[in-house]
Specification:
The protein is mainly alpha-helical. It has ten helices and no strands. α2 packs across α3 and α4 crosses α6.
């Protein structure tokens, strides 16, 4: 059987028209209460070529990005800077990377800190509580534990049940 040619109708057709009119995928997604990733899937289904510059996030003005960087450097912490501006820490992190600045510290390479985090995790303390005490995010603590070879609690439970 040959390739099936799809003809956009209804909402899909409207999304394609909005995209061709210059709207970003985020803007289209907001309009239809769907994610920008879903908008991308719809456009791809109909063979619409997507310019990578319009694929994802809205561009941040240079002045705003510079303000993110200045605040993060002044505070020495991208999480606190993100809270001040009402954006995600990842947004601040991207601005820092574009500016070539790293706020990484060596506090997580200390053996005492490593031992403390692992012990607290094994004693059942929540990742968010551990992260808060080290002024970081739960995701960061989780990635450190994986990096250090600590088995996730769920994985350990699954192995015991088998």
């Amino acid at each position: 059987m040959g390739d099936l040619v799809r003809v956009a109708q209804g909402r899909d057709k409207e999304m394609i028209e909005l995209h061709e009119a210059g709207k970003t995928m985020s803007e289209i997604g907001e309009q239809y209460s769907i994610t920008r990733q879903r908008v991308c899937q719809v456009l791809q289904r109909y063979g619409v070529k997507v310019n990578p510059s319009r694929r994802g996030r809205k561009p941040v003005a240079k002045e705003i990005s510079e303000a993110y960087v200045a605040e993060a450097v002044a505070l020495g912490n991208k999480i606190k800077a993100a809270e001040k501006f009402g954006v995600s820490p990842d947004t601040i992190g991207r601005a820092l990377r574009r500016a070539g600045i790293s706020l990484r510290s060596t506090k997580f390479t200390n053996d005492r800190v490593k031992t403390d985090i692992i012990a607290r995790y094994h004693n059942g303390e929540r990742l968010s509580a551990i992260a808060q005490s080290y002024d970081t995010r739960a995701q960061h603590v989780n990635s450190l534990l994986r990096k250090w070879g600590v088995e996730a609690k769920r994985a350990a439970l699954w192995k015991r049940q088998s």
